[in-house]
Amino acid sequence: MLFFRPNFREYSNWCSIAIVLGLAIFSTSAIATTKNTANQPQTIPSDVIIDKVFVDKSARTLQLLSDDKVIKSYHIALGGNPIGHKQQQGDQRTPVGSYTLDYKNEKSKFYRSIHVSYPNTTDKARAKSRGVSAGGDIMIHGQKNGFGALGLLNQQRDWTEGCIAVTDDEMDEIMAAVNVGTPIEIVE
To answer: Is the pTM of this model over 0.70?
Structure first.
């Protein structure tokens, strides 16, 4: 019998630790699930027209605006070198300035995306004067395909190549609310 083994106390200690850890993990998961379901984000009413998207790089926020009123705000992740205006392809920066959201992409390597009209004429001229490519393919997008479940964790760090990333659920909401042709202003 287990009670009569000489190492019963050692087994008992390990079992106690395993039970406590299991309960702690289960409790934490239950609390997180309860918080997530209790704080479901309010969806954007269908009669609200989003007429501008505003991105503040230093605050790591993307805001959807209607008549200069913030309708919804999202935490964003940027490129690995986020400070400053995008200078060239591969610099991992997000451009600063006024652009247009000019098309939607449902077949992206990231979960859905909306293209930012970077580079504009000024961006191209600046890059040409430096003898480099301005780059392109700047998007607002969800998580890398297959990694959507890690969205909340991923959003705690800057991980894109210069794009603006949100969680997949947030991307669904943005795609539904924002029309092609909507202006986007990106500030430092």
So the answer is: yes
